[in-house]
Amino acid sequence: MLTRKAKAFWPLLFLLVFADCTTKRLAEEHLVPEHMPHPVVGDVVRLTLAYNPDAAFSFSLGQHSRVGFTVLALGVLVALGSVYRSTPAQDRLQAAALALVAGGAIGNVMDRFRTPGGTYRGVVDFIDIGVGGWRFWTFNLADVGVTCGAILLALLLLRRGDRSPAEA
To answer: Exposed/middle/buried for 83, CB within 10 Å: 0-12, 13-18, 19+?
Structure first.
């Protein structure tokens, strides 16, 4: 029998990985050429195909970025697995936060292993938000999952930190 945390965690994890992989392939198929904006909501929300061989905010490890960020993500997944195991069986909210972070990490790691045509180009990004010349970094659904999951997890941990151990 599945616990409440498992019922929250596993479907959300698989849904995010599936949606991330699907939208990345659709972006590669339909948003060509690379770096050409396709307006969705005027100039504010655009879809623009880009490849990021580095990490969030263009953080780079140089020629070691692909391997380094893959190893880092796999380490984070191991840590998340440990937190998931220690999460109480009824805690669906923490399980959902962990699923979002883990699903996003898995989606981007899978992209790091892809080499279409034998060439590694980087993680596929395509969501482009901004106004005029001010643009946020282009990102993907995996990035959304990691960010939302991390914020939710931080809020949960902060809220629980305000209570005594017996209440938490």
So the answer is: middle
**pTM for this one?**
0.89
Mean pLDDT for 92-119 is 92
Mean pLDDT of 8-18: 98
Pair of tokens at residue 137? 């970094």
**Number of Cβ atoms within 10 Å of the Cβ of 95:** 25
Report the alpha-carbon angle 85-139-58, nearest 5: 95
Residue 108: both structure tokens together: 């981007």
Residue 41's DSSP bridge partners are 45
The CA–CA distances, whole Å, from 141 to 85, 87, 110 equal: 25, 25, 13
H runs (alpha helix) in 31-126: 65-86, 92-113
Question: Do the beta carbons of residue 112 and residue 67 sit within 8 Å?
Answer: no
Percent helix, strand, coil in the chain, to 5, is 60, 15, 25
- State the catalytic residues: 125, 143
The first and second tokens of residue 91, run together, are 């805690």
Strand order in the sheet with 123-131: 38-41, 45-52, 123-131, 134-135
